[in-house]
Amino acid sequence: MDTQRTGPRARTGAVEPGAGRSRGRDVPPATVARLPGYVRVLRSLSQDGVVTTSSEELAAGAGVTPAQLRKDLSFLGSYGRRGVGYDVVHLSEQISVALGLTTQRRVVIVGIGNLGHALASYSVFAERGFAVVGLIDADPAVVGTTVAGLVVQPSSALSDVVSAADATIGIIATPAAVAQDVCTALVAAGVVGILTFAPRALRVPPHVDLRAVDVASELQILAFHDHRRTGTGA
Amino acid sequence: MDTQRTGPRARTGAVEPGAGRSRGRDVPPATVARLPGYVRVLRSLSQDGVVTTSSEELAAGAGVTPAQLRKDLSFLGSYGRRGVGYDVVHLSEQISVALGLTTQRRVVIVGIGNLGHALASYSVFAERGFAVVGLIDADPAVVGTTVAGLVVQPSSALSDVVSAADATIGIIATPAAVAQDVCTALVAAGVVGILTFAPRALRVPPHVDLRAVDVASELQILAFHDHRRTGTGA
């Protein structure tokens, strides 16, 4: 095991803490996007008592091809062992370290409508290492109510909530019209990662990462394929 | 305008109704994924009374580079006119036709928990050409309740609801453990596009398109970048 640990670690320069872009290979964004899926499958296998897995089994569980999986894992220096496969716990740990999931990250949600409610109550966040530590809404009727064990705070408290909880990630679940203002306020308060559900493009400074989930656009992409296939509307 | 209409149309073979993959250029998936964003910005410009737009303005609104925008639109045969730019209404219409958004598509949502509630009530769906026509849940306490004007039906009614409403798209907002069974039932009922929020990989036959939104994975991707930058947990 010692060799296995040292080997991979020595090759993961690009994703080790403090490693600059100049060291080792960068992990491509598409690979980063698939890593959480591998962790999910590995944890599920581990819960079922599975000790080793093959690239075929892991790939099938994650919905990718075995070739894609092997390539993705090669960026982390994980190659498995011929005839043995991957050690489930070790690989899960290795990917989690690469993703920075070994420390809990604190999240603030802005916009406690239906979607904000759903996100505040989403148990999978906790399972994956995220703690929702603050809820913010602009509506006086919502402020002061308790959602998922947290009292909703007014917009004016955003900066204080972020600082007090040392939150590094903000989720925007507001209407599109106010999303940029909320985004700017979150950045000013110190968050470095933003996940937005608002259907509009947002601007963030270079040091802040932005991920956008646009549910209506996802449906439009499905409609495109349906349209191409059927050649008609419905 | 006639030339503009004929020109582009003649070049959009790959996305015209009934066009096979062999005709013209295929539209790359990444381009398809960006088209809804362009429609969103164009509609917003149109509402503000703007008649023509530049690739710079449109790109900025959609959060892409002008070069990316021009390349994406070239797949639809839309090149704009030097010194004039793009006709806002015409381009919006052209992309909408390519995406198949000119006909309303009917959507069934399975799993009416917090997230299903939020999706059922999401007004942006209607604005973008989608009608939620059916809600399904397995919980007897939820079945029979009215959400967003629709009465929630039991799982046993899934096939009937899909057929009766002629729904072509299904949204899965159930817990991960039952997502594959729901997916299989939706496919059997005749939907050809599925959008899933369940945090697990799903299998669909080749004629069905699957889009997956995994909110916790989005946070994990943000955590990865934070981790690389700070070199620490929090």
From TrEMBL, chains A, B:
Residues 37-76 bind DNA. Keywords: Cytoplasm, DNA-binding, NAD, Repressor, Transcription, Transcription regulation. Homodimer. The keyword Repressor applies. Residues 1-29 are annotated as: Disordered. SMART domains: CoA_binding. Gene3D superfamilies: NAD(P)-binding Rossmann-like Domain, Winged helix-like DNA-binding domain superfamily/Winged helix DNA-binding domain. It comes from the Bacteria. It is found in: Cytoplasm. Its main location: cytoplasm. Transmembrane segments: none annotated. The gene is rex. Pfam families: CoA_binding, Put_DNA-bind_N. The lineage of its organism: Bacteria, Bacillati, Actinomycetota, Actinomycetes, Micrococcales. It comes from Cellulomonas fengjieae. This is Redox-sensing transcriptional repressor Rex. HAMAP family: Rex. Residues 101-201 form the CoA-binding domain. Modulates transcription in response to changes in cellular NADH/NAD(+) redox state. Belongs to the transcriptional regulatory Rex family. NAD(+) binds at G111, I112, G113, N114, L115, G116. InterPro entries: CoA-bd, NAD(P)-bd_dom_sf, Rex_actinobacterial-type, Rex_DNA-bd_C_dom, Tscrpt_rep_Rex, WH-like_DNA-bd_sf, WH_DNA-bd_sf.
